[in-house]
């Protein structure tokens, strides 16, 4: 087993190369010495942080199909609305379960905690809100 073989498997299955090495070692396909050698090669190539094979995000294919089959094959928005009504769960739950698109990193709310007098202020910067708490809590 070579790194190029593992890279091909990653392209097919979307699994991290190091995870593949671990699993192949567990299955007895790769020896302990071979795994150690592969880990060293991965590290030397800088693949610990960024592997050379791009993958896409997973999508909940089976859940979407089951949802569409259960509610009659409507479009996604209609299926979610019907499933929400049937179960009493919020539309937002079904939306998260059906759409796994990564959220933008620009929408996070940042909270700064600092010692001092108890005050709170909100600052808006673009699409994010920063809520600053400063206060002293005596126990």
Structure summarized in a few sentences:
The chain has 139 residues and is of the alpha+beta class. It is 47% helix and 14% strand. It has helices spanning 3-13, 17-26, 32-44, 61-71, 76-87, 91-98; strands at residues 110-114, 119-125, 128-134.
Please give a structural write-up.
- The protein is of the alpha+beta class.
- The chain has 3 domains: 3-44, no CATH class; 61-98, no CATH class; 104-139, no CATH class.
- The chain is built from 6 helices and 3 strands; from the N terminus they run H-H-H-H-H-H-E-E-E.
- The protein has helices spanning 3-13, 17-26, 32-44, 61-71, 76-87, 91-98, and strands at residues 110-114, 119-125, 128-134.
- It has a 3-stranded mixed beta sheet with strand order 1-3-2, with no helix packed on it.
- Strand 2 (119-125) and strand 3 form a beta hairpin.
- It is flat, with a radius of gyration of 24 Å.
- The termini are far apart.
Please name the defining characteristics of this protein.
139 residues, alpha+beta, 3 domains, three-stranded mixed β-sheet, 6 helices, flat
Helix residue percentage: 40-55%
Shape from CA axes? Answer: flat
Give the termini separation: 60 Å
Assembly state:
single chain
> In percent terms, what proportion of residues is strand?
5-15%
Radius of gyration (Å): 24 Å
Give the low-pLDDT segments.
Answer: none
Structural class: alpha+beta
* Chain-averaged pLDDT: 80
Sheet with most strands: 3 strands, mixed
Strand order, main sheet: write it out: 1-3-2
Query: Helices and strands, in N-to-C order?
Result: HHHHHHEEE
Total of DSSP H or I helical runs spanning 4+ residues: 6
Q: Quick one: how many beta strands? A: 3
